[in-house]
Amino acid sequence: MRQSQLLIPTLKEMPADADVVSHQLMLRAGLIRQVASGLYTWLPLGLAVLRKIERIIREELTRSGAQEVLMPVVQPAELWEETGRWKKMGPELLRMRDRHEREFCLGPTHEEVITDLFRREIQSYRQLPCNFFQIQTKFRDEIRPRFGVMRAREFTMKDGYSFDTDQASFDLTYREMYDCYSRILTRMELDFRAVEADTGNIGGSNSHEFHVLAESGEDTIAYATEGDYAANLEKAVAAPPAPRPAAGQALAEVATPRATTIAQVADQLNVPASRCIKTLVVEGDTGPVALVLRGDHDLNEIKAEKLDGVASPLTFASETAILGALNCKPGSIGPVNLPIRTIVDPEAAAIADFVCGANRDGYHFTGANWNRDADATDVRDMRNVCPGDKAPDGQGELLFLRGIEVGHIFQLGTVYSEPMQANVLDRDGNTLTPIMGCYGMGVTRLVAAIIEQNHDQHGITWPEPLAPFAVHIVALNYAKSEAVRSAAHELLARCLDEDVEALLDDRDERPGVKFADADLIGAPHRIVVGERSLKEGNVEYRTRVSRDPQPVPLSEVLARLT
Ligand code: ATP
Ligand code: MG
After folding, report:
1. H/E run at residue 336
2. Does the C-beta of 445 come closer than 6 Å to ligand 1?
3. Does the beta carbon of 334 sit less than 6 angstroms from any atom of ligand 1?
4. How many CA atoms are closer than 13 Å to the CA of 361, on its beta-carbon side?
5. Alpha helices in 363-500 (DSSP H)
6. Spatial distance between the Cα atoms of 254 and 358, rounded to a whole number of angstroms
7. Cβ(56)–Cβ(187) under 8 Å?
8. What was the pLDDT predicted at 320?
9. Minimum-distance ligand to the CA of 440?
10. C-alpha to C-alpha distance for 178 and 200, rounded to whole angstroms
11. Is any atom of ligand 1 closer than 6 Å to the C-beta of 38?
């Protein structure tokens, strides 16, 4: 392709509102342009990369035995009502009415549509297992679209859905998808990690996320220094604490004027935060609920909102509600004689002689102990693990990494097949409700994730399998030099013959501009055609990442690449 005929609007300046390097480079290299918040147009270079990603995904899924379909973006409300999600989904689901006042939504995911297809078309256990996928536009009205295509409102997802007769069969399908995702990301030359994950509002029990490791990632991954354990922080657990020591101190109430945070209390009483108890009050199904943690631990909101009787989404009680129920302000609450339901994190339940709020403004207890002074019968994990915690299987410690979630595979069980009555007949003619799995991969997000891992200070450094062009032919003084033009055209023609994707910079620009753009665009191979080297029958060859050009005879340069 000739660069003069392609829309590749590179930018010299750093775009003002792009916070992460992938977003900056996607704009600067002319891959995308924003249309409105979270909505993007893909320009030729960006689209070329997108197509390469799609192709790898298609090939590997097909190899795994999945079949491709294409479902509509617009989905009728009735299907979502069958599973209860029409009510359950918040404003992320963009709803609309057609001219007949019928309700629809823009599909954020397709469990309902595929399950509807399945129940209409598949009747017998003999047709199972089956596994469908599509590569298609999704819409989620994200509360904070950010980082360019990383968290957009409209984006491309590969979503897949499987149906199996029983758990054993499903386990094989799930394993196959896990391996397939690993193959896909390996082919993209990404440094990634599969981790145990929370299932979010898709539902189901078991799930794994695939994270591309990057500092800019929105997720924290906890992984074990020794064994295989790795989980999203949302879900990560540590080994249970050592048994609680016996009580040693007597309960005493002490004045803690103006101390309302753990740090202030710990400081005034000269105890470590790990010996203090933090009591948070959240809304529950039947009044407020106290959540009790060790002072140096953070509440994990995803775990907390799943606790029995705790409102989901997690909602902290207002100061007025707390004053009403407990007669003290949030900074002085503690589990001793607390008149509301109390749930205690295992780590908090494992300390003795602790400091906690006295349920009286300006006072705390020291020497407090469970059983004797406060009730710790309801003990549930609800904290974020910390770096250095013991791994749950005892193999090593947990450490943290940042990751970009590019894929998520779920075990759905019968969460969709049951309410939608997507049944088949089993061997004996009885009704069988299939076990479903679902498998998402963020196609557009992958482009950003790939750039996060493949760039330098000059621009993108595409891995070979994903580059929009394998070779960038940079023709210097193209407009004026007949020798350069003819050598460049010859090279381009030979690239075409050999199926090597090449971009010819035939623009009337200074060499400095051409080199800077070539660095930005990031084709893995670069051939510079200039009058001086041509006089010796040479062109200059370099890879994107090696910075030293080497003279190579014009006639040999392609062989060198292929
Ligand atoms: P997240 O936690 O990042 O919001 P999710 O759990 O909502 O992701 P899934 O419903 O599992 O995501 O969707 C499957 C995949 O689609 C994700 O792994 C991610 O790669 C991609 N994806 C999800 N939301 C977006 C978005 N707003 N923009 C771009 N890609 C997205
Ligand atoms: Mg989401």
Report:
1. none
2. yes
3. no
4. 8
5. 443-453, 482-497
6. 9
7. yes
8. 93
9. 1
10. 19
11. no
- Candidate of 136, 157, 235 to mutate for ligand 1, largest count of ligand atoms within 8 Å of Cβ: 157
Tell me how crowded residue 39 is: count the other CB atoms within 10 A of its CB: 13
Q: How far apart are the first and last CA of the chain?
A: 19
Contact 148, 26 (CB under 8 A): yes
DSSP per-residue letters across 426-443: -TTS-EE--EEEEEEEEH
Contact 509, 525 (CB under 8 A): no
The first and second tokens of residue 27, run together, are 């704009």
Phi, psi of 405 (to 5 degrees): -75, 115
Strand order in the sheet with 525-529: 502-505, 471-475, 525-529, 538-543, 550-553
Give 51 Cα–ligand 1 centroid separation in angstroms. 19
Measured CA to CA, the distance from residue 85 to residue 201 in angstroms comes to 9
Q: Using a cut of 0.85, tell me whether the model's pTM lies above it.
A: yes
Encoding tokens for residue 482? Answer: 């007949």
Count of helix runs (H) and strand runs (E) in the chain: 15, 29
Give residue-wise pLDDT tens across range 54-109. Answer: 999 999 999 999 999 999 999 999 999 999 999 999 999 999 999 999 999 999 99
